[in-house]
Amino acid sequence: MKVKWLYSWLGILVLLVGALGGASPATAAKVPANFAATPLLPKNQLSSKVGYFDLQVTPGATQVLKLAVTNASSSQRTLQVMPVNATTADSGNAVYIPSKRTDPSAQTTFTKMTSGAVTVTLAPHQGKTVTFHTQIPAAGFSGQVLGGLFVTDPHATASTAENGDASDFHLNNRYAEVTAVSLQCQPNQKQRINLQLARVGVHRADSQPTAFARLRNLTPALFGDLQIDARVVQNSTGKQIATQTLSNGSMAPNSWFNDNVNLGNNPLDAGKYTLKLHATSGKRVWNFSGSFVLTRRQSVEHNSLIKSDRQPTYWWIWWLILALLLALLLAIGAYWLGKRRARATDDDDADKDA
């Protein structure tokens, strides 16, 4: 039940570039045995100390993005470079991977403004420069637009869930690298983080019914240091049945994710439950609460899954073994006593004959 989850997240960890300290995008780790991507930073770069595009852009202008890609291997390689939007995976972290996950609160996105994917063929140890054009809206935009240039081998296979869930991105024997792109029209503009609870409910995660709270970042800004304490309470009894904690999370601008909460290891009745969240990011604090219904089918499924996950008890086998050992010891003891008495009787008879 957990194997699929494990393989999925191993793949994401290779691609994940959103393990953020709180306010800055990061680039993916280099893969020198295959290929490398290096941003050629333009004059409107805000900080020369970071290894990604951190740009102040002008409304109505066309921003040129150049990425140097190098084939470090000893064989020819075909690479695909594609613009991607920064999204938030269900792990509670900002990620830069191909995904259809979007939020309607976004004024615009990196992929809407940027030219399409480019395929480049490189001879062994050859390097080339790939160019993209990003058209900034005439009216500009507020806050931050965040995305990345995602480099991968198109001959390798990968799949994304039909719903575009970044959490379900699978990596199948391939390497990828991404360079983050942060665009701002007014870099000094302050943004008040607006985190909202969209809804709560139950869905299938890791092949079992799981409670979830969909959280939305309605702010055009990346933020980190997200801590969430979640707990599930049974309405009929007021009893707390499950808890879960998210530490050091981050959310991409204008994005959402499902904070999944396992329903625990005890049998549950169908009925109403409440999911309560206490979330913080620095000095910011949010408290959310929402009710959901665990259907009879979901209750039966949950109870059967936790029953199958429990180790079967074999105490009766130990009692049977103990009883057999005791019977064997008694039989040996009786045989030994019988032999001893028979020997004693033979000795008495021998003395009488003498």
From TrEMBL:
One Pfam family of this chain: WxLIP_PGBD
Domain WxL Interacting Protein peptidoglycan binding: 35-152
Annotated TM spans: 315-337
UniProt keyword Transmembrane present: yes
Stretches assigned to the WxL Interacting Protein host binding domain: 168-303
Keyword tags: Membrane, Signal, Transmembrane, Transmembrane helix
Highest taxon above the source species: Bacteria
Cross-referenced InterPro entries: WxLIP_HBD, WxLIP_PGBD
Residues spanning the signal sequence: 1-28
UniProt protein name: Cell surface protein
